[in-house]
Amino acid sequence: QEWIRVGNDYVLVSILSGIIFGAIAAR
Fold first, then answer.
1. CA of 16: how far to CAs of 1, 3, 24, in Å?
2. Using CA atoms, how far apart are residues 4 and 14, in angstroms rounded to an integer?
């Protein structure tokens, strides 16, 4: 179950990073 929690955290970070990168690239 712990690896599932880690996976969820990784997905969340990936999404946030994608949004930030997209915002920077949009400029």
1. 23, 20, 12
2. 15
The whole domain housing 20 covers 1-27
pLDDT digits (tens, 9 = 90+) for 1-27: 777 788 889 999 999 999 999 999 998
Q: Which residue has the tokens 């712990």?
A: 2
* Triad 4, 7, 9: Cα angle to 5°: 115
Q: Two tokens at 18?
A: 């994608």
**What is the pTM (predicted TM-score) of this model?**
0.60
Question: How far apart are alpha carbons 22 and 18 in whole angstroms?
Answer: 6
